[in-house]
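for the writeup, i need someone to sanity check this before i put it in the appendix. the sequnce is what the collaborator sent (i think, or maybe the updated version? ugh). structure was predicted straight from it, no edits. if anything looks off just tell me and ill rerun, i have time this weekend
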Amino acid sequence: MLNAPMPSVLPVYKRYPVTFERGEGAYLYDREGRRYLDFSSGIAVTLLGHAHPHLVGVLKAQAERLWHVSNLYGIEGQEQLADRLVEHSFADTVFFCNSGAEALECAIKMVRRFHHDRGQSQRHKVIAFDGAFHGRTMAAISAGGQAKYLEGFEPALPGFPKVAPGDLGAVAQAIDDETAAILIEPVQGESGLRAWDASYLEGLRRLCDEQDLLLIFDEVQTGLGRTGKLFAYEWTQITPDLMALAKGIAGGFPMGACLATARVANAMAPGTHASTFGGNPLACAAANGVLDVLLEDGFFDRVHIAVETLRHEMERLATAFPSIITELRGKGLMCGFRLNDALVNGEVVAELINHGLLTVPAGDNVVRLLPPLIISEREVKEAVTTLEEVFQSFVDEQASTGGDGQSAP
């Protein structure tokens, strides 16, 4: 039997059978004109929804002036963006790139260079956590360590010992003379929306200070307002030494950033790291446009109203449908629910699409709700109504089959 012809787009994505033609605010429209409420946001990317007028305006204006010059020259918008990120974070400096994985690569390199410059080149290990996801490069999947992403790409790169999250004692035990840093997501996204207590993250900071290690926060998905503050570390009393950003930083335009303190970044010099496209004029115009909106007075007050409305409504649904929802997870507008094991999250996501609501599956049988930060109370309630209708259809089906897939007598 002949193999099927190879499609022109490398078939590494399992796509749902819908193609979108345009978007406006919190909604997407397919080629037939059907409207969908977008609680996926391009996997936590389109922070300000689709075709946001301010972002459209700044990107159009930049496109008419300058697209790309490379980092051989000064880039005005890049300097402005770096200044603003420094002003509103713990960091002293920023490296711009194109994705979250690249931002993590930069952080890992900076960690090694920091210890190298202090005469401790043996310090190269970065402690990471079971269930983590840090991107798709070899270093990123090695740091994440999940078997499904490593399969066929072994051996994993050395230098990323794993521990179970939530146990400070296990982290302390994993530290040795070769340990350089600890890397953690404040909320694990891909593995099922596991949010860590502030006290745990603060404990990691203490360990780093006691052992002269660096602390890296992967805020690729949590950063830029997704949890209800500009950065997730702001829910704690500590700051990291390095932080990776991407996803929503430019509202859908490809961009990543690695933020660092001067103490760490002083080890970097011309030639130690670079990016051809990183921080180009178009990306920086989009990212500055995002910050224009996020930093407006009252913006996060409106986000908090949406967060509280969604939390309250999801608690109501969890009570009403205990055979569907076993646990609510996440933080802010990076939230979702774990399904009863009798259901499969991918199938539930597909059924929600059929009802006009876009969500995202995650590990541990979780469905993620990632609406844009501009979501209104009305749109939250619209999404919840759809969830309720779909949940009720599953309950009715369970009742008709006796809960085991067989017709009830």
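Residues 377-400 form the longest helix (24 residues). The longest strand covers residues 325-331.
thx in advance!!
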